[in-house]
């Protein structure tokens, strides 16, 4: 127990000084990204010294996905660019393919240091000795396992600032799970240059603009669905049972961030 305590204290000290102490190198880290519908997709984290790009390699078309019996399984919101992030020491830039009506959204936010909580738990995942950390990032809560064997401070999504590589991460509401598949040294990468260049060439909202815009989008989405359900129930004499998960998940499942105040506004709208 004493040994574990000492290890945890050393990790805390490492995290405090990680920006100064960790020498970033060039890596390409491949993850399995398991989305909200339990669909497995490959994703890549490209680390280029003091910058990184994370991209979900998603080539699915938008629309409903159906089961073999013809029942709808889930819906996909996507386009040819899909979801990716570019991060440097100052900002995180995010691009998501939602809403479809405006061909996606690009925004940025100040790169604040995340408030990681070390639990003291440890386990071995594949060949890596890992430690557990918890963090809240813009309305989402993650449980993360990381290893000091690979000293990098960038991670998938916005999971940055640890003194080692993220091996696994899981979001508490089921938004996603990421699992390390492989890591390689890398000199240059087209994906990195393309993703980084996107934010120089396109309109990018600041985070306050993003929150206001996205809050309006998801609230309007719930209002429209509520009206549609009411019409269907009226036409059927109120006998149709439609479950669209009246809580936050259904209307925020496509967002990496949940804007401040969005959940409270969604709770004010009844689906029936």
Topology:
Elements: H1 2-16, H2 18-21, E1 27-34, E2 40-48, E3 51-57, E4 63-66, E5 72-76, E6 84-87, E7 91-96, E8 105-110, E9 117-125, E10 128-137, E11 140-147, E12 165-171, E13 177-185, H3 190-201, H4 207-235, H5 249-252, H6 262-267
Antiparallel strand pairs: 1-2, 1-13, 2-3, 3-6, 4-5, 6-7, 7-8, 9-10, 10-11, 11-12, 12-13
Describe this structure in words.
- The protein is of the alpha+beta class.
- The protein has 2 domains: 2-201, outer membrane lipoprotein receptor (LolB), chain A (Clam), CATH 2.50.20; 207-267, no CATH class.
- The chain has 6 helices and 13 strands.
- The strands form 2 sheets. It has an 11-stranded antiparallel sheet with strand order 8-7-6-3-2-1-13-12-11-10-9, with helices on both faces. Strands 4-5 form a two-stranded antiparallel ribbon.
- β2 (40-48) and β3 form a beta hairpin.
- The longest helix has 29 residues, at 207-235.
- Mean pLDDT is 86; it is low at 1-23.
**Straight-line N-to-C gap:** 54 Å
Total DSSP helices: 6
Q: Would you count the extended β strands for me? A: 13
* Strand order in space, largest sheet: 8-7-6-3-2-1-13-12-11-10-9
Computed Rg = 20 Å
CATH class of the largest domain: Mainly Beta
For the largest beta-sheet, the strand count, sense and barrel status come to:
11 strands, antiparallel
Shape verdict: globular
- Number of discrete domains: 2
By helix and strand content, what is the structural category?
A: alpha+beta
Which ranges are low-confidence, i.e. pLDDT below 50, for 5 or more consecutive residues?
Answer: 1-23
Oligomer: single chain
Give helix % range.
25-40%
Mean pLDDT: 86
Which fold name fills CATH's third level, the topology of the largest domain? outer membrane lipoprotein receptor (LolB), chain A
């Amino acid at each position: 127990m004493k040994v574990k305590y000492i290890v945890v204290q050393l990790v805390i000290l490492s995290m405090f000084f990680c920006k100064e102490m960790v020498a970033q190198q060039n890596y390409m880290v491949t993850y399995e990204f398991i989305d909200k519908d339990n669909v497995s997709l490959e994703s890549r984290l490209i680390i280029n010294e003091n910058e990184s790009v994370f991209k979900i390699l998603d080539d699915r078309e938008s629309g409903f996905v159906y089961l073999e019996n013809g029942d709808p399984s889930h819906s996909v919101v996507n386009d040819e660019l899909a979801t990716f992030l570019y991060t440097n020491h100052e900002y995180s830039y995010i691009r998501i393919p939602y809403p479809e009506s405006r061909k996606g959204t690009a925004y940025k936010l100040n790169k604040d240091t995340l408030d990681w909580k070390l639990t003291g738990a440890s386990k071995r995942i594949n060949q890596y000795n890992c430690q557990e950390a918890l963090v809240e990032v813009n309305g989402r809560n993650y449980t993360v396992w990381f290893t000091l064997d690979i000293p990098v401070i960038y991670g998938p999504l916005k999971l940055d600032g640890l003194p080692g590589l993220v091996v696994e991460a899981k979001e508490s509401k089921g938004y996603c799970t990421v699992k390390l598949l492989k890591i390689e040294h890398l000199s240059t990468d087209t994906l990195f240059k393309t993703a980084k260049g996107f934010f120089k060439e396109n309109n990018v909202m600041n985070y306050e603009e993003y929150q206001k815009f996205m809050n309006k989008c998801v609230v309007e989405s719930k209002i429209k669905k509520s009206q549609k359900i009411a019409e269907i129930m009226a036409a059927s004499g109120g006998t149709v049972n439609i479950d669209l998960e009246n809580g936050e998940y259904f209307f925020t499942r496509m967002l990496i961030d949940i804007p401040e105040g969005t959940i409270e506004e969604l709770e004010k709208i009844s689906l029936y």
